[in-house]
């Protein structure tokens, strides 16, 4: 079969690749759509250092092609979304026959070959049935929604609270929509580009602040909260200047969530945490407790419309363009989809 | 001044009434709008037994006309909403000078003369500033929203959960809107009339079940939840047949809230509570912890549109018609407003 | 091997029984100690109607004797506690290879032969490693602790809150100890016998009320709370007279948990739930989310001393006496242990 | 009357001082005992910069001597504890006649003259009735308990969780006791002195680590948690080396509370917060929502024995020695009491 292969930094090409096989408990899935995320970009430009050659990609959906021993035959042909992390196979939970509870799961596409190819084998426990009416490209975009759900589940927004979402990339936009659906009152978002604001408004943002345009972004946001600070601040951008103003933007006894990941983030001063009696939530992933399934239902019911997020679509043969676009964020790129 | 006076069961007339005076710490408010609720109807038909003659009414808004000693003069002329319960003046909290924390507050209009008149005196601590753009008739409708907020605050809906709201009177409709805003997924509502369903759909209901029309209401609702029962069931109707099916409609480990008040409610069997590991919340009022202020903000921001709830408006002179309409629920009556 | 067999109502005898076999994924455990609980008594006297002949018993501990295919060989010889419910083998979760997540688990000893014998086969996922220093008789008593943990986990006692535990059988005593450990302030317990009060005091009860001795049990308890009612009331007795006073014993905005199971429990009136803004938790089991493991650690660390609970011990050959004692609750019986 | 007066950095002397007067709504309290805390020491050595001369001190208890206008006369002679912060008199809450809800309260002894004198005037709303059996010196020590309660209230310890308390000064020891009472399982404490460990063990610590004695404090603590990290870590010492290891000591998905206040605290790295999905609670005070009253009840009931904390007692005339001892922490000083 054909596969996209990273052969070096910023080098991706389509090659012939060995066919996927279904081990006992595993299935082979035909990849119908795969989406690119920040992790793929970081792997592409070398900030995440994985061995080459490597088939990248972890967010995808498709149909079950074949099943391995011990897996229900009736799954063949089923439309599925796929959870992107593999059980380690070595920990206590894996040893007890509970791979779904593995605490050391590893993302495919980084430490094993990923989904940017025609077919891939995954454990049957990673499958989520894709209901009628949810297309493969939609189901390939569940990850940012699952991360967002893990965030709002922990924040427990009280109806009407003022929320600030810093950064309007895919995760930031997902949070904007999920906070709007969860009862946020005033919903202030920021970015350094104008492009995402139209989507943000569609998703429920009440106020959009372009941090590259205003003189004093922090003051502009504070003014929108009436000076007292927001009930909740969520940092998704990973930009030091954004992370830095987080604690100043939240009110006394407020809550902060940090999702934006970067190696050069400034550390948090401790005294304001105490002086303002804050609660800080570190968000490291999608939680793995039903968030994928709930994200799928939000898409199915139409409450989360993914259409505005998808700015570019490529065939597998054009995967090099897909990576270049996603990495450069040129041309208003938010989410880039590859359809093998 | 003129006042509506209950002179006996189902007898209300407009009479001359002594002027309101502002004691120290109190203010006189000009009543611009008052709304009728179930309590008023129960007092009107004698199910709540209060002394006659009595000026009824507790949900109202207006402007400060005069202030008593010790109250900031600058309040004169201010547009206000008014919390409807008076501190008892005798408990520990009142004795400590903290009337706002009184735990034995009493509703005006029942045990003291209420708001169905041109002017009324209330403690300054009962005032809530009414912001620009919120009209008096809107501010006279905060009570069902505050009760609803007290309910969703305790239920803590997780984004996407299935919610059933039994009964679509004013409180039921408020809950429908508040649950939709708070992240309910599938949102099923019931009533024995068709009239409220149009409003319910506008407010975010996904499914409306007319319990007077279907053969087996319980089964019809369960079917809409896929057979497993809802995550959350909220009973607002006060009808025995509705309260009775509540525990059957909720899923294992689900939550139930009961707001619908009536003297003939069937008691709850205990074994299903245990067998299904349920949590039951009894809701007895508006909580009194900022819910009024937050309700006002939901109205101000346009997230809760009160217009559909108001089906009838009367001048003070026509208050007898107002009570008759609200009590009989004729002519599609949901909320009846009196504007003195 | 030898096994206790229920051959009819109140008829139990020791018989020869076919040897246990370890199917794939299962293990054979040598039973070192088994404890009797209320469910066993109800099965014995026919209130729970199971087919005869039947080997009763579900609460036990021992050592792994043999392992079936696919189970780690190194488990042989391991000291274990055993979770007493079997996965159904037919539901979605079981079908996905996640038997630990089965939602229709069935207690052994009722619908399949139980643990009152020398050896029994159970799924490997039901095993909990028994640490150094925890004896088999202790590990056979985890069930009431796990149920109790499931209760205090949901109640979330605030340090210093006043708690009432109604009934001081094994579950009631477990709750007394767990509430004391969890921060209860005043801790009031009730029973109709004097016998358990000495244990209750050792476990941390501050006040013991013999409901058979006082004129007005409800008033006596209320007086101990200063008249205002307790923050939390936990009903474990299953007696109608106890369940009936529950809502009167709790303060406004307080919490109630109901664990005591009986078919003749009076239903709960709804109006007090609303008037007092109560929260009611139905407790139907041990929760199955780590409570067994945590119960084991409480025993291991010595924070929960099980010794006072065990009033009688029997060899397997004397199992008829064991059942008679446990059922009649004669001779101050709290917990009866059988050691095959 | 006589008063202790700070006349400059590390200079305190006893002087004659004008008599206290009770304004309307205020009372004059005879100071029977006052305790010294870290804030007093910081003011004494100039790290907190307040104007001189100043009467220091804010933690005290005594009896009501006189009452001002509008205060219940029957309070005269009452034994009381006193909340140490004064309402600002200028904010919205104060303006509404709700001084107890003031959000800008100021500690006495810093920005106004404090309690290290024979008599002091305070608002009646600051009084807490001191029950029979609670002596003045005990009631002068409520502040660290109230701060500790505010901490455990937010952390919500699950019964049996492993807790680490870094630092065993007064606040750290209070947390040790409160965590033990709240259900902590393994309870590991640290300090750089041996002296507090005996108290810590009495209070319920299971393991004491002298960070000045072990080679690698972090590893020693981790080893006590079985390598996985604690469920909860509470930093109370204010030492950079202690604060620095906090995030390494907590398990994945664990909770951290930071109370130890210092200007040279190292900032928190953000990536570990995300990678480990942590929740961080900044604790800035006693919460002001009933914690004082609950602290008093813990003392009254004997569940929190304050005796071990009090290492030194002085008469008012020897206040200079009291400050010197408390500041230098010589002679095993934990809590120093002054009894005017």
TrEMBL record, chains A, B, C, D:
It comes from the Bacteria. Residues 24-131 form the Alcohol dehydrogenase-like N-terminal domain. The keyword Oxidoreductase applies. PANTHER family: L-THREONINE 3-DEHYDROGENASE. Keywords: Oxidoreductase. Residues 170-299 form the Alcohol dehydrogenase-like C-terminal domain. This is Alcohol dehydrogenase. One of its GO terms (molecular function) is oxidoreductase activity. Pfam families: ADH_N, ADH_zinc_N. Its cofactor is Zn(2+). The keyword Transmembrane helix does not apply.
